[in-house]
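Subject: two folds for Thursday's group meeting

Dear M.,

Sorry for the delay on this. The cluster queue was jammed most of the week, so I only got both jobs back this morning. I'm pasting them in the order they finished. Each block is the input sequence followed by the predicted structure tokens. Could you check whether the formatting survives your parser before we put anything on slides? The first protein is the one we discussed after the seminar.
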Amino acid sequence: MVLLKLWCKESFQEALLVRENFCSHLSCVAGGELFDFLAEKESLTEEEATEFLKQILSGVCYLHSLQIAHFDLKDEEDSFVMKAIIHAINDDNVPGLQHLLGSLSSYDVNQPNKYGRTPLHLAANNGILDVVRYLCLMGANVEALTSDGKTAEDLAKSEQHEHVAGLLARLRKVSLHLTSFIFL
């Protein structure tokens, strides 16, 4: 793994033996600005995006296995994941989205971006029916609201994607019916 290979210098490994020194020494690793590299590149192939994402998540899992928190990675990690998901949605790439979300066992498909839009909002706004279906199967909340109070159905209607709006309306009704049935 690229991220972990950066940490394999002998003196750095010795410094890590003292757990309290980890955070202060981690900032000394050269070439660790993966997010900056990716941001400058602007565009990745699906294979590159998947590989980078796997490396990031593997590195985070490794840190967690050592009981080490990663305080400053969360925003960058979420931003990268969201960008990869947006890329798959915009390309109407259901297999790529399935592969991406399938490799992220802990990713919440209802996690909003900085504008309060979830992947379902983005797919509905773009009228991509197959992606909307897949996200709903993955547990996307059809009633989730954007920061300005709109549902995915509202966004689909505003862009005149009636096929998507109709599906979301049916799913919302089924969801409401099941909820009332469960709590009777």
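Second protein, same layout:
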Amino acid sequence: MWLSLAFLLALTGTRVAACGEKAAEKAVEKAVEEAAKEQGQNVDVDVDIDKGSGSVKVSGEQGEMQWQAGSNLDLPDGFPAPLLPKGAKPMTVQTSPGSRAVVFWTSDDPKKVFDYCLKAVTDLGRRNLWWCLHLLDNAHSGPVSWQAHELVGTR
């Protein structure tokens, strides 16, 4: 359920961020609440889009999921900050029961970032982390973003 909602929110939140109108925020809130109801879930959705950033919060019987996008984002509480290379910029932050994830951007070489993250995970003694590379263009050159994901309550 949470993964389905997270995907839907990421997709709709991005589209709402483009228009930034309160009416669009309310439309997304209603659509997600109705979709959840069709799956037998009763949730409360709050969408807040500001110029250059936005957030979506879903509260329900399974807990709370929050998704943020923008610049100058804070890492989720307890997220291992040393995992992010120096100069990395968090672009999206997602928290839900049992997990937290950060998509960050860096202009560093992907191999350099991979090596850094592998060492950071080893140094932190955390086996509950994974990350993946997102190439932002088809030519595999230019800026890249990474997703770091942690399962909460496991090590």
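Two things I noticed about the second structure. The longest strand covers residues 43-50. The chain is about 30% helix and 35% strand.

Cheers,
T.
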